[in-house]
Structure formats: C-alpha cells, structure tokens
Specification:
Blueprint: H1 2-31, E1 41-45, H2 52-66, E2 73-76, H3 87-97, E3 105-108, H4 114-125, E4 131-134, H5 140-150, E5 155-158, H6 167-190
Parallel strand pairs: 1-2, 1-4, 2-3, 4-5
Helix pairs in contact: 1-5, 1-6, 2-3, 4-5, 5-6
C-alpha cells in the first residue's frame, strides 16, 4: 500500500511540474515581446467573429502594417457556421474599414484551429518566410511554437492591449491555454 501511495505522490508531483512549466512558457510569450523587425507577412489569427478579441487583433495587424513591419497581412481563420463570414473575411473587413488606403490581405479562410491557421498560411506564403503573429497574449506561446514548427523563420509576435477582458476571463483563458499546449504536444512533435 505504501508503494502505491508513493507512486501516486510522484505522479502528482510530475503532473504539477509539467503544468507549472507549461504555465511559465505561456507567461513568457505573453509578457516578453521581441523587437519586431521587418517581416515577410503579418499573420492575424482568427477568433470568433464580431468579438472584441478579433476586432482588436485586426486593428493590431493593421497598426503593424502601417508602421511598415510587413508588406502584406494574412487574415487567418475559417467559418464557425455556414451563416457567418469566415474569421479571415471579418479580419479583412475590419482592416479595410479602418485604413485610408487598400491594404494587401491574403485570405486563409479554411482553418478551424491554430494548427490549421499556420499550416494553411504556410501553403499561402511558403516555408522559410519571416512572420509576425498577431493574437491575444495568452495564445501567443502555442501560436509561435507552432509557427516555428511549421518552418517560419524568424517568428515575431504582437498582441493588442487586452482591455476587453476582465480578470476572471483572463485567468480562464490562461488556464485553458496551458491545457491547449499539452493537447498540441503531438502536433509539435509530429506535425
């Protein structure tokens, strides 16, 4: 019986250690933002349409474009339902509505998750390109790691100021992201 409890204790410590390490990775990418150099493309990752998250991600992508950080924006995200436009279509609408000049936007409107966002973006712009990922802070670790896994190089990242979330929502999204990264481990390893 003592041996079983010892194994359970070590298992709990191992799981807690993995979760803590994972949380540290999520927090690192959230709070550390590299100096952005000129890149081949700005990739705005989707979220539910008509939400402050996707609207602000779109504006952040436009801001980077207007600063000369890249010459093109990739709007990435598919349809949540057949009744709605794609996340990519929504991103493009927000960008064009908030710009005095037409912004070159490549639509990647077939993806349904972060893995597909980056895999499909790779098919649109090619391997070895430098990109700036735009998403919310809590989502950056998974997105940046997956972009590097797909062969983008270098990968920079940026996010809008998350004033549209309250503290409980932020806590929820950070914890959800910790588990999402664990779920993505096979994709990080095997693609």
């Amino acid at each position: 019986m003592k041996k079983a409890w010892r194994i359970i204790k070590y298992l709990i410590i191992a799981v807690a250690g993995i979760l803590l390490l994972d949380l540290m990775v999520v927090l690192f990418f959230s709070f550390y933002h590299p100096a952005i150099q000129k890149a081949d493309a700005i990739v705005v990752l989707g979220a539910a349409i008509n939400t402050p998250a996707l609207y602000n991600r779109s504006l952040q992508g436009l801001k980077l474009y207007q600063q000369g950080s890249a010459n093109v924006i990739v709007a990435s995200g598919g349809r949540i339902s057949d009744k709605d436009i794609s996340e990519a279509g929504y991103i493009e609408k927000v960008i064009q509505a908030n710009s005095a000049v037409r912004v070159p936007v490549i639509l990647e409107d077939q993806s349904h998750d972060t893995y597909e966002n980056l895999k499909n973006t790779l098919a649109k712009i090619g391997k070895g390109k430098s990109i700036i990922i735009v998403s919310d802070d809590f989502h950056l670790a998974r997105a940046v790691l997956m972009a590097r896994r797909e062969g983008f190089n270098p990968v920079y990242w940026s996010s809008p100021t998350p004033i549209y979330y309250d503290k409980s929502e932020m806590a929820f999204y950070y914890m959800r992201e910790v588990f999402a990264i664990i779920d993505y481990i096979p994709k990080f390893i095997f693609g």
